[in-house]
Design the sequence.
């Protein structure tokens, strides 16, 4: 949604991991691939260095700080998150892990430890209105960034 609204390129890391085999195999317990971080980073480095990317992923500490000018952490009420993951057909233990991570703010804290505070923003992402508002905020931020960084 953000990529479409801004003209930036969308990089959905989970899909790329599957397509390019940036993994070490399948984890039966969590019904997901085990990420090979080095292969992933090597595979996307050129695109990331070129800029203009919206990276969609649930973790942050593996990425170099220099790749990002803005980091959004999408937040959701636990009931909303539970329902979303159930609809997607996630395994129960994966749903539990994700909900517990949201309760403990694991991703938010990881992002805050990895990136400068001024580029990190936690935003609600529960409703269509939240999503529309987030897109508008990013568009405004991007316009300001472009004005401050001509030629980049």
Sequence:
């Amino acid at each position: 949604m953000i990529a479409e609204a801004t003209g930036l390129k969308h990089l959905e890391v989970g899909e790329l991991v599957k397509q390019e085999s940036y993994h070490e195999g399948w984890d039966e317990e969590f019904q997901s691939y085990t990420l090979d971080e080095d292969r992933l980073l090597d595979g996307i480095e050129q695109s990331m260095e070129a800029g203009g990317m919206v990276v969609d992923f649930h973790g942050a500490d593996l990425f170099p700080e220099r790749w990002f000018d803005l980091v959004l952490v999408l937040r959701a009420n636990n009931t909303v998150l539970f329902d979303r993951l159930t609809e997607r057909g996630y395994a129960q233990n994966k749903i539990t892990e994700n909900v517990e991570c949201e309760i403990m703010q694991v991703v938010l804290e990881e992002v805050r430890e990895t990136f400068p505070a001024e580029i990190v923003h936690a935003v609600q992402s529960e409703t269509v209105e939240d999503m529309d508002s987030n897109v508008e905020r990013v568009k405004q931020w991007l316009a300001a960034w472009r004005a401050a960084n001509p030629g980049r």
